[in-house]
Fold this protein.
Amino acid sequence: MESQAIHSDISGRRFVRDKIESFFDDLFGDTPFEWDTAGVQLRLNDEYITGFEEEGRVRIAFALGCGESVLKKLEEYRKNKRPVDILFLHHPLVFSGMKKFDLEVYPVSALFKLAKLGVDLYIAHVNLDSSIFGASFLAALHVAKWLSENGLKVSLGTPTSETLITQEDFANPFRLGSYAVSVFIREGEVTFNSLVSYLEEFYNARPRFDSSLLLDKRGERLKAGDKILFCSGSASSVVYGDYKLLVTGEVGYHPIYDSFQQSRAVVCFGHYESERMCVQVVKNFVDWLINRRNVPLSVIFGEKVVGCDFEMLGLAELFTELERTSRELWKKWFGEVKLEVDTFFIEDEDAQF
């Protein structure tokens, strides 16, 4: 999938790359954990960029991870004279310090290939998860809208708060302060089976594990006072928390067993399946900033969210602030230049196991 570009008169690839990478830094901020990696992970100098110049155009590719299939796609773009400048990843290539650099062994081999292709590498991991671009927020938003359309009254919050974002948080409304998002049921009820069926459609995948089936057999339902907790990727850090249903990618057997003994359910859709949409949302956001600022920001989250009653979900003020801050950020970094950007989404086929 490729976006449309707009006119630009910029030259100087390193200058443009630095501006875009600084824009991402502003957008996502630092990662909340010392063990995590975020920001520019590979920054090339002019020696590597030379030969990849194309006057007035910069290209950004978005992918969940950087396996062989992604590298091959980048090579294809280069051969077709559409070389990528920046690869935006959710999963870091390198998490911690390395003491050995073998150019034939992953991930060093991937870094070396990116350098040969003239591609910078930018990472947004847990800091992306903890933002409105995160897969947890995206899933919670879609489910909240679906529940509302089925007659329930719901609101969004964090695992420990019934408020998703406070007035003090509006210094940067993109950051939620939590990588897990809750949907609180205020009124009404729904069966586990019908909700999981909707989630299968949303994730375009069947659950790899679903203990809610056992609660369904008992005749239990999700009702007023219950919390649905979304934690994309791995939920090991929240599985012992407070919820009636946990929707995640993966978690260990014993925590799931313990949860079931407390009449709580866990549904696992796979790490890749639960996260693959997050970088697509970031791509949609960049496209929106460049080409579509005359339409509501909610369009970046998908067609099913367009027309959502954000007032009812308690999110109207948040989205108003997001639109205002988005324009200010773009103006801050690119207000005096006409930036031409092509964006590409690359499916990480190697992560589908």
Remarks:
- Residues 4-11 have pLDDT under 50 and may be disordered.
- The two ends are 23 Å apart (CA to CA).
- The chain has two domains: 13-125+327-351, 135-275.
- The longest strand covers residues 227-234.
